[in-house]
């Protein structure tokens, strides 16, 4: 009897965890201005260094992004990207790292 009750509970927990992981804010960094060149998607919680600074797109889907002018989210946050709105900039940016708040 315990096995039967445990399997549905584990299945439900897996579905909830998978559904939660499907939606996360994303910072897309582009190598060139106007969203050109190579790009990288940053969507991991916590600190990430930004490899490209030509332009960016932010897709706010539940988590905010704190932007830093230094690597490894050191110093004071320069700007916070919203958790519930998208943003973009077609020209170069100076941000060196991001801390996605999860």
Shape: globular
The N- and C-terminal alpha carbons lie at a distance of 37 Å
This entry's quaternary arrangement is: single chain
Mean pLDDT metric: 85
- For the largest sheet, list the strands in their spatial order: 2-1-4-7
Q: Outline the biggest β-sheet.
A: 4 strands, antiparallel
Strand percentage lies at 35-45%
The residue ranges in which pLDDT falls below 50 over 5 or more consecutive positions are: 1-21
Helical segment count:
1
CATH architecture: Sandwich
Q: From the alpha-carbon coordinates, what is the Rg to the nearest angstrom?
A: 17 Å
Number of distinct beta strands: 8
Estimate percent helicity: 10-25%
CATH topology: Gamma-B Crystallin, domain 1
CATH class: Mainly Beta
Question: Could you characterize the architecture of this molecule?
Answer:
The chain is α+β, with helices and mostly antiparallel strands. It has a single domain, classed as Sandwich (Gamma-B Crystallin, domain 1), CATH 2.60.20. It has one helix and eight strands; from the N terminus they run H-E-E-E-E-E-E-E-E. It has a four-stranded antiparallel beta sheet, with no helix packed on it. Strands 3-8-5-6 form a four-stranded antiparallel beta sheet, with no helix packed on it. Residues 1-24 form the signal peptide. One of its GO terms (biological process) is negative regulation of growth. Keywords: Signal.
In short:
By secondary structure, the protein is α+β, with helices and mostly antiparallel strands. Helices cover 20% and strands 36% of the residues. It contains 1 helix and 8 strands.
């Amino acid at each position: 009897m315990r096995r039967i009750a445990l399997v549905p509970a584990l299945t439900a927990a897996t579905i909830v965890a998978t559904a939660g992981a499907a939606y996360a804010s994303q910072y897309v960094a582009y190598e060139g201005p106007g969203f050109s060149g190579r790009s990288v998607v940053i969507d991991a919680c916590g600190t990430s260094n930004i490899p490209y600074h030509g332009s960016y797109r932010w897709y706010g889907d539940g988590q905010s992004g704190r932007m830093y002018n230094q690597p490894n989210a050191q110093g004071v946050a320069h700007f916070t990207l919203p958790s519930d709105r998208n943003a973009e900039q077609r020209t170069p940016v100076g941000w060196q790292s991001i801390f996605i708040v999860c």
